[in-house]
Specification:
The chain is an alpha+beta fold. The protein has a single domain, classed as Beta-Lactamase (2-Layer Sandwich). Helix content is about 40%, strand content about 20%. The chain contains 8 helices and 6 strands, in the order H-E-E-H-E-E-E-H-H-H-E-H-H-H. It has helices at about 15-20, 60-80, 120-140, 155-160, 165-175, 190, 200-205, 210-230, and strands spanning about 35-40, 50-55, 90-95, 95-105, 110-115, 185. Strands 2-1-5-4-3-6 form a 6-stranded mixed β-sheet, sandwiched between helices. Strand 4 and strand 5 (about 110-115) form a beta hairpin. The longest helix has 20 residues, at about 60-80.
Length: about 230
């Protein structure tokens, strides 16, 4: 999911749980921002596994970083598992976009980048292709079964370097991987969930979210309900 006036510093940090819950956005101008970039093992059946991930939580408060980091991982796996092989899609919620590329193939890998809405889609998908190319070239498939042992420091460099989407757009000009004929689907988090699934239930059942993060989610939802009534 994107010149403009110089960015204004937000009066309070972003809140990913609030984004997922459609809490009204704050009235300020945001800079283009990458929050998370991940390579995910996504077999056609069975749970996914994050093989490598880098985050930038500098816009969040110290007390929010732990819960926000967990939700970034949760959101990454949720959208990766629900993107069919060979497909690209953008899942949008409030001011956040999760761009997903499930390359599939023998490696069964996906790449997911979570950005703000201002970060343009074309460079985001160009970056996902580059990340998958670099990862498969440097990380042997035999190590996928032990994510903790995988070393892929390039992913941290990608997050920092490509905060400026013009850098990612340079990839586009070189590789010509993503052309105008490629179909990118734009969806909401609700539309990618399977029939009968609810985000509340996924959060409650998740072993990857701490008790603190689940309370963080419930509090944000309660605040959202109050805002809706008002």
């Amino acid at each position: 999911m994107y010149g403009q006036l110089p960015p204004a510093r937000p009066t309070q940090p972003h809140n990913l749980a609030s984004a997922l819950l459609r809490i009204p956005s704050l009235s300020y101008i945001t800079i283009m921002k990458i929050y998370s970039l991940a390579v995910v093992l996504t077999p056609p059946s069975g749970p996914s596994a994050i093989l490598s991930q880098a985050t930038d939580l500098s816009s969040f408060s110290f007390y929010q970083k732990g819960s926000v980091g967990e939700f970034l991982t949760f959101f990454t796996k949720t959208v990766a598992e629900r993107t069919p092989q060979g497909q690209r899609q953008t899942v949008q919620e409030n001011n956040y976009s999760a761009h997903v590329y499930n390359r599939g193939g023998a490696e069964q890998l996906s790449a997911v980048i979570i950005t703000d809405m201002e970060y343009p889609a074309r460079p985001a998908f160009s970056l996902l292709t580059k990340v998958l190319d670099e990862f498969t070239a440097k990380v042997p498939q035999s190590s996928f079964s032990n994510p903790a042992a995988i070393s892929f420091p390039d992913i941290n460099t990608f997050v920092q370097k490509y905060q400026d989407p013009r850098q990612a757009d340079n990839i586009m000009r070189v590789q010509k991987e993503l052309d105008e004929t490629k179909i990118v689907l734009h969806k909401t988090i609700e539309s990618v969930l399977e029939r009968g699934e609810k985000l509340d239930n996924l959060v409650e059942r998740s072993n990857a979210l701490s008790v603190q993060s689940k309370m963080f989610y419930k509090t944000a939802k309660k605040q959202n309900s109050c805002c809706s009534v008002m």
